[in-house]
């Protein structure tokens, strides 16, 4: 990774990796026009910048809710536009890439696809920012390899996301590896954000891990948020309420200021 | 997985999961017509049944040898036919599936793609045996989920392959989880084979792990084999020589007989 | 460990690390004179060589049964003597060492104490065989370090025991690392036995893992055995019945013979 | 752990678990009167509260520096007294406990001894605060079990210390599990501090992990500190300089204030 220098990734009016902390919120999966609009309003009101929501879901078992597909991306886009937010969503196959690029501001490669070299290579020649999550069984060296697969094609707009790795500890869903934040910044020069929701697996741990991520130097946060998480079709247990989301964003702002940074504007 | 009963998977003249142990040998990657013919001859002479060889490789870094692609599959097929062997090779994207199915007896889903649900779903409606490797960061429950994704589409010809999981131990490349053999047989009723090469990461450990796999109840073995492993473009350190391969197959036969099984005929 | 050469460890009439496979059976904990005598009889009848049984137990929580202490060791000794067996039991503190050495043929250092350097150093000047289990969080390098702590004091009668390490997989209690058998034999020249019971955590996996261990080159087995495991005060779920124990020993003998070895006589 | 309520642990003039953050600094091992006095002066000048320094070391290999023993504890005490600091040091065997209790303000049980139930039980009836580090292979449930072993004897002055667990990632020495901070506070009500040095294994990661720990809710920090870390007989690579220590303490104070806490006074 010698040729990669410290670089920020601009996405519309924001810059990932600058002094401003970027906040991403939204549900695990887009479930309906109504659901995503309510959440978008709350994310925007809380000072969030980007709306997330899955439409193509990679679930462990095929019986689980698999997402709404392309119509879900359209709902996400409309909800974000209505509230002045950007959008990020995950793609799980090369066949989805073009329509996803037309609708999204950032394309996410999820943890289960970090090793999907065909998908990574297809993103290489595209002019779209990529949010590259770390595989939960992937070493830092392998994560760097995934970055290289994208960059080889010319696309240098890569934002990294630490979301927890698999360890023997079962009290949490995954083990958040916050040392990966400074290590990946050193090795790649790229912005690194953190997803505390998937690491925690339970909502009362999201706030402490979110604050810890910022203190470790993260450039942003992605948090699963629902107005009524107990009704979510997936990941409800780790999803914070819209009220909690607003509270966490406020506290993140305070910690960021103590470190000479601020919430992105 | 309640609907899955104990079932053998027929592939041409062999049955995975019966009393006969099936032996798969061949290089990490097909490198040339010459290379794969030499190895095919040695695998057949040693009593092996299936020739393996990668043509679409998912490597950690893009600078590493990525395989010969479709021409590599043709070489593999010709070499196998010349020596009366079946062929298995890995696909890494849905776009490769149709031509792979035309050329191969078994399509392999590799460890890095066990979570690739688009690929698994595309294999569902196809009439081709699938060798489904366990992801190195995947739990047994997630592995069962991947089986379900394929079977939902109607394809019940799934052969499982344990190849080592990631643990803190670095003396070997991965930690071979042989308890997964009886556990997966109980849970799915499907045949389970073992790849000791990737688990070991060094060739002198392949023989003891291969024998241990058979004693644990494995229905077959997949071992990386080269006539000149020190010249291999990938995975040379864990690749056994053709002489060692023949010796291991012989010892596998002896252990199998002690357990009331035998090498497939 | 350069100075350590291939060496067998004699214990009374047996030699660990020779061609004969040594079988150790018995309960997790000695519970009563009656219990241990019944089990000793069954272990001897099945062809076992050494009786195990804990008297000083290191349990996760203090409310769990902690063992009978020194009186338990006396019961163990008497039961073994009555049936021509040797005895092994665990010590958990330097204060127990002298009386343990007077009563036992082999002193066990358990997985939770592999890092207890005070205990290891105290065993150094003693003339007693030590069964050194691998810590479930310990690397192979650290296990070698524990061997060195004992040997520095002059005691070279060390028998190693792989018993599973901690990984992310929860379908079994621990993940049995059978590659450790050949690796530790290479590095230390010492005999290595395997405890499949603690790795499995459930009795129906003990047999396949026991046979796999022998095929991987293990010099012996330690299996938790009870005549009525469902009544055991600890570890009942992973304890095989005396009938199953006899059956496993017989099958171990068959596999050993296929490998040019045999049950110790 | 139902009976344990939220409780602070007073140690001389400080209270662990209150709003004040307690800072512990000092070398891996006490090496000489001169060394420890220089460091004590720097720790005190930087605003640290407690001096650490090992005298009984549990090293992986016996050839490594094992510490000065009891004379080392005397040096540590004198250096601390000269600069108004408290002292904490590790014991590794029950035989060391009484003289350690006479000299130390806090007795540390190290990661390698968290499972040493004899040591834990011996601390139960003593009236001395215990710093109980998490074993690097220990689950949160097992850590709770170790707390219970101490408390059963009546000693309720237990301070917990997360110091990283073992995962497959090798870019850092261990993987710091910051979710353990809120989880253990919920489960035990006890103060939890964090040791970023052992988790990081390299000094440039100590600052981000220290700040992250405070943001996650830690009640204190323990950081390995040396005036000339490159000369340290052990753990030099992960030891920060006295200048860096002072800088980290200052930044910790700023982050603590953003969270409504402060450095202990």
Could you please describe the fold and organization of this structure?
Four copies of one chain form a homotetramer. Chain A is of the alpha/beta class and 265 residues long. Chain A has one domain: Aldolase class I (TIM Barrel, Alpha-Beta Barrel), CATH 3.20.20. In chain A, strands 3, 4, 5, 6, 7, 8, 9, 10, 11 and 12 form a ten-stranded parallel sheet that branches. In chain A, α8 packs parallel to α9. The longest helix of chain A has 17 residues. Chain A is globular, with a radius of gyration of 17 Å. The two termini of chain A are 31 Å apart.
SSE layout and pairing:
Four copies of one chain form a homotetramer.
Chain A: E1 9-11, E2 14-16, E3 20-26, H1 33-45, E4 50-52, H2 70-82, E5 86-91, H3 97-103, E6 106-109, H4 117-123, E7 130-133, H5 140-152, E8 158-162, H6 180-188, E9 192-194, H7 196-200, H8 206-215, E10 220-226, E11 240-241, H9 242-258, E12 262-263
Parallel strand pairs in A: 3-4, 3-10, 3-12, 4-5, 5-6, 6-7, 7-8, 8-9, 10-11
Antiparallel strand pairs in A: 1-2
